[in-house]
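Narrative summary of target 7.
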Amino acid sequence: MRGGRVISNGRPKTGASFASPTHSLFGEWLTYLGRSRAQGFLRVFVRMKTLLAIHASARLHRSITRRLTEDFVQGWKNRHPGAEVIQRDVGQHPPAAINEAWIAAAFNQEAPSPEDRRALAESETFIEELSRADAIVIGAPMYNFGMPAALKAYIDQIIRIGRTFNLHPERENPYEPLLSPKPVVLISSSGAGGYEAGGPCAGMNFLQPHLEVIFHFLGFTDLSGVHVGFEEFKDERWLRSIEQAEAALGITLERLTAHGRPQ
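Modeled conformation, tokenized:
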């Protein structure tokens, strides 16, 4: 079964998140990030060129999230000729699930063995891609009210103590993100509708809220989201949501590339 969440009026939500109730949990954290991280956002906008595109759909040819993600990639390249685009297709090439060897290696930071490095090799590749990127676009359909298993495996690989976050038990908020801030664009889809905040199925939506928490945890607080619903119905509601998503992506692309466009 597939489901998902509709962004109100198809407009991107920036700097916060898909109107989710989880956003209030991050108020103190955003204050903690402070002026230095806000300045980091400005530096990113000025030089933004490298884009990380993550595909999570198991479908290769009939995926609306793949099509819209590639449309965004093409728009990015049109505005940044010669820009690097990192393609990470977890839908077609699922990451390995973490295991006991991975966990032991992740916590053995002072004297990692060759075995530890091998266990974390895939994680290191993914984290290096995140570090190199100036922005991220991710296409994520909802499967069974949540994210595809391959995307969850990817997230487990990139949430790594001492590498993407630090832990400070003495602090009221013990988590410290270690990666540079960067904007994230989430393109989602669903077979039906009503999963938006306030919708009849909102309590069954575990896709956008989960990803929102993850990206805030990493320090990526500039989130934009578009959604295509009613994909299984292929009716006027579906066509309308595609049009709204395309328009919203255009607005988001213009915002993110306005300061880096070649003169």
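Confidence is low (pLDDT under 50) at residues 2-26, 41-46.
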